[in-house]
Write a structure and sequence with these properties.
The chain is mainly alpha-helical. Helices cover about 70% and strands about 0% of the residues. It is built from 17 helices and no strands.
Length: about 350
């Protein structure tokens, strides 16, 4: 009898292990269908996997996302309402929920959900970014930028808040933060489509905002931010170079002199990873190639291609350098205030 009981227990444990492994296999197969755009097959598999493991949050998230991708928002919402009320709901759970609420244009419910999510995860950059996007689309600009700035403060290694904030500041009178946040973002997402678009915004920002007037502090009399005033004063010393126009070449000269002056005057008071990175590039002889990469391609692609050929060694050295580094902003270097 004891032998039979032991055998039965071993069989049950073996079956449970097999079932769990089978659920993992099913989830992996479902993901393959999701990636191929076959959401119906992914849903079929995930629903069967949930029959074996009803409380599996990862399966529920995958199922909800497939309903969302299929644009079956009604069924996605059914899953969302259960998912966000779970004690183990994570940041991704709330992100998926946000996508569903936005698709259904349920703004009030979506805002309520984000508030709950941020209370639970107060240092989640993605949640601040996406909550801000919701408010921005609802024309609540003031609260949206405040959320993006808060996201930069609490989670500076997350890129989305820099992207949203840079785009916002580009359409305001501010001359500083669209350039700074935009360049940070490009370094964080150097290969993405958004990164390429931000390069154009950066070049436009130097042309249309920072150097549009001979006096770059014009219109900034009410600016009380010490960091941005220091930035403008230091940049203002270099305006004679811009008489040749704003190009990748003149921006390299201006920004080189800026970094040299900044480290003599303001670096101790305002330590900043972006400027440390630029100084490193200068010291390594890569700053010219970096500025060509940043501005040259969007200014004139044919000229940039020619530059890479006539400066093949510098281009290769910079390209190899890029492959080996990950750019992240640290905490404690957020000098913007609203």
């Amino acid at each position: 009898m004891k032998r039979f009981s032991s055998f039965l227990l071993a069989s049950l444990l073996s079956f449970a292990a097999f079932a769990q492994e089978d659920v993992k296999t099913m989830q992996a197969n479902a993901k393959k269908f999701t990636y191929s755009g076959d959401y119906n097959n992914a849903i079929i598999i995930l629903n069967r996997a949930l029959e074996q493991d009803k409380g599996n949050l990862e399966l529920i998230k995958d199922l909800t996302m497939n309903y969302y991708l299929k644009r079956d928002y009604t069924k996605a919402l059914e899953q969302v309402k259960q998912m966000v009320n779970r004690e183990d709901a994570d940041v991704i759970s709330y992100q998926i929920a946000g996508n569903v609420y936005k698709a259904l244009e349920e703004v009030k419910d979506c805002e309520k959900m984000y508030k709950k999510a941020i209370k639970k995860f107060p240092e989640s950059g993605p949640l601040y970014s996406e909550y801000g996007e919701l408010l921005y689309s609802a024309k609540n600009i003031t609260d949206a930028i405040a959320l993006w700035e808060k996201g930069i403060q609490v989670d500076p290694a997350y890129s989305g808040n820099y992207y949203n904030a840079a785009r916002h500041y580009f359409f305001t009178r501010d001359k500083v933060w669209s350039l700074i946040y935009g360049e940070i973002f490009v370094n964080m997402e150097s290969l993405s489509e958004r990164g390429a678009a931000m390069k154009q915004l950066l070049l436009d920002g130097y042309k249309e905002k920072l150097f549009a007037d001979a006096d770059i502090t014009k219109g900034m009399a009410k600016n009380k931010n010490e960091f941005s005033n220091a930035f403008l004063q230091t940049m203002g010393k270099q305006t004679s170079v811009i008489s040749r126009g704003v190009t990748a070449e003149t921006l390299t000269m201006v920004r080189t002199r800026f970094i040299l002056d900044w480290y003599q005057t303001y670096a101790a008071k305002f330590p900043y990873k972006l400027f440390d990175f630029q100084q490193q590039l200068l010291q390594d002889g890569l700053f010219d190639a970096y500025n060509q990469w940043l501005f040259g391609a969007v200014q004139d692609l044919a000229s940039y291609d020619n530059w890479t050929k006539t400066h093949a060694d510098a281009y290769e050295k910079f390209t190899n350098f890029q492959k080996t580094r990950i750019f992240k902003m640290p905490k404690g270097q957020n000098y913007q205030t609203n």
